[in-house]
Amino acid sequence: xxxxxxxxxxxxxxxxxxxxxxxxxxxxxxxxxxxxxxxxxxxxxxxxxxxxxxxxxxxxxxxxxxxxxxxxxxxxxxxxxxxxxxxxxxxxxxxxxxxxxxxxxxxxxxxxxxxxxxxxxxxxxxxxxxxxxxxxxxxxxxxxxxxxxxxxxxxxxxxxxxxxxxxxxxxxxxxxxxxxxxxxxxxxxxxxxxxxxxxxxxxxxxxxxxxxxxxxxxxxxxxxxxxxxxxxxxxxxxxxxxxxxxx
Length: 247
Fold this sequence. Notes:
Layout: E1 3-8, H1 13-24, E2 28-33, E3 46-49, H2 55-68, E4 71-77, H3 95-123, E5 126-131, H4 154-174, E6 179-186, H5 196-204, H6 215-226, E7 237-240
Parallel strand pairs: 1-2, 1-4, 2-3, 4-5, 5-6, 6-7
Helix pairs in contact: 1-6, 2-3, 3-4
């Protein structure tokens, strides 16, 4: 019987980093994404193409999991999106862009949790990890974005704050079934950010540990919270930020 951990946004830099770490721990990985499967097939895990905001796709995923006769050990809600206009100033922000980000980051995560909870209740165990951000905990330091080609829009912070509190509700509701739900909130991740070297230097200068996070830093936190080593931890938000939020 396969011991699945499902990862949304599984073909991205972070998704693949989580998958690699979890495969090393002996899990079977099911990657969810809307991207075209790489021609060389060089990815960590099995791939199931779907849109997590589409209820028909989620029903198709549910049928796939039921027919596979698998255990669902974990779910990593990692998917996010940056549609056209994502980095616009608030005064010029499109409501459609705002809604789309909320739909992927929050509604998509809701639909996946709705799908896996019945499996986990029957099993009597399961670990859900939501990928948050320091921006869902503290306000952005806007000075670091001045003159850069990167920013932190309101919708990103709002959605990440929501995904963190999401964990507490799920943890409180389903803990009696052995289901745990936590969040991992990285600081700026160097190998997935688009700000370039100048932004990386500016960011690192404000971090007590003197560097940006790596996708591997986040992956180590995810693998801990998915595993039984964190068996008495639920409803928590693990900050992986090099000390950024201590100030």
